[in-house]
Amino acid sequence: MSGNPTDPSAPQITRPSVLSLAIKEKAALYAAYMPFLRNGGMFVPTVKPYKIGDEIYLILALMDDTNKYPIAGKVAWITPAGANNNKAQGIGVHFPEDETGQRAKLRIEEILGAALRSSRATHTL
Questions:
Q1: Within a domain: 107
Q2: What is the DSSP string of 26-40?
Q3: Which positions fall inside the PilZ domain (predicted)?
Q4: Which of 2, 36, 45, 78 has the most CB atoms less than 10 A away?
Q5: Does residue 122 belong to any structural domain of this protein?
């Protein structure tokens, strides 16, 4: 009986997890943004378990920007519970090379401006 959702031999279709992240202030954006990833990326606090390479659909809201940024990215990094230096638990989502990833990266870097060169601590490196 293939095609039956209760049949263990039926192929499993995995859909990307959907996560929403609303950044309310520039300091929070600075702490979450990952400019060292080739296409840019964002740290997303979550307690849900993920693996490197998992597909994530991120809905990103940036401060006063009325646009939402839907991004189909991949988990590039995991900060586990109880990480060193009291880092927040969560995942790093690598933006895709497509237009959605580029749009989000450009908008974030436009908001952050000179702060990108700061040496302040972040949720990432």
A1: yes
A2: HHHHHHHB-TTSTT-
A3: 19-107
A4: 78
A5: no
